[in-house]
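Worked Example 4.2. Read the sequence first, then its structure tokens.
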Amino acid sequence: MNTYILEKPDPNHLLYTITIPALEFDSAIDQYFRKNRDKFNVPGVRPGKATRKMVESYFGRKAFKPAIDKIVSDAYGKAAAEYPEEILFMPTVRVVQDIPGRDFVFSAHVKVNPEAELCDYRKIEIPQEQVNDALKTAADLPIENRAATRRYLLQNALINTIAANSDIEVPDTLVNERAIEMANAFDQQLAGNNKTLDDYYKECNTDEKALLRDFADAAEKQLRMRLTLLAIAKNEGLEATDEEYDQECRRLAENSLLPYERVKELFAKHEIFKVRRDIAISKGADFIGRMIDERWPASEEEKEAEKKAEANRAAEDAARAKKNAEAFAKAAKAMEEEPFQP
């Protein structure tokens, strides 16, 4: 059974020293050798007939590098999974001891969270051209939609401006994961239109590598905005409270039709930090929204029109719910009066 020692050189870095028992390590190497022995060509020995000792003597330990890499990756993955926070970076690995017959020991030095050095976001100005575009777009809409649209466009513009003028570290692991998610969603969208990715490549004269690169660029931009908002939330003391986390768990339980306690159980480890992070990001966005409201407040006419539109939507939702309830009651009554006959 693997063992490890965990140290924290500083608040944002971890240092694992992981030990793999000699018997387990040797067994994994031997299994790899037996599976791939036909690939090792030792001069003077017929293909597939060289012993492991011959291979190791001729090629050295590098002959088993794929096996060692997998052993190291699996051992680190299990150790990192036990850490209470989600580790967002790849580790730097160094072999400490690799002597035949002895335990295999390696170290893994890894950063936990991305670092962010924010600009003076309270004073930064959105480029005037972007402001003008947002104001014009909102002005062309019905009055009840102007304030919300203007706020949304200017909020995004301000977040992008802050991100562009700050030093925000975006982990490659997050970018790759998000890019793959976007590619899979795009693949499903094409399938809904009876098309494949190959069809898309031909129509757009592109390929998988270029598509993933485009998704990676989009993912990096999205993540930079989210990490900027997270840094602002931390700076403003807007991190998720226990009450907010509990409310979010209840909302997710209701939406997923799972018992609340089951959701709490599922979120007991890494997910709790993801949910808390999402709450903090949302609070950071609300903070930026309030900055927009202070700089470009809605007029009284816009507020009144928006209020009336919300009241109308609420009335329509209530009427729709009432109609559905009446239809259900009517159907239930009909079934009582005329039971189903098989």
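Now turn to a second chain, presented in exactly the same format:
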Amino acid sequence: MSPAHPEPKSENIRKTLLRLGVTPRYVGFDYVIYAIRLSTENSQYLISVTKELYPEIAKCYRTSACSVERNIRTIITNIWKKNPELLSKIAGYPLEKQPTASEFIAIMREYFTTFQNQA
């Protein structure tokens, strides 16, 4: 396990997701917030997204890992359709195509750990 970074505040993640164009009306909204927070606590989750991260989120929200994955992908698809420029800015490099779920979570994790360390 890598050293933990300061945990980003859920409110900061929420505000950023809203700026990216998604709202709490999406089932995956809270899943993404939790995924970012978990991956900040333990970077191993970024390596084992399907085997560890999704099941952990599913357990917390009493749903299936499959549902978690699908709903997070829906969030990413909507962000990519509505605000790819801001997502690229957050990533710190131009995104040529829609990121995968694990890429998206890693991008957001890095953004918030960097943001937290500068605050």
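Notes for the reader: The chain has a mean pLDDT of 91. Residues 65-82 form the longest helix (18 residues).
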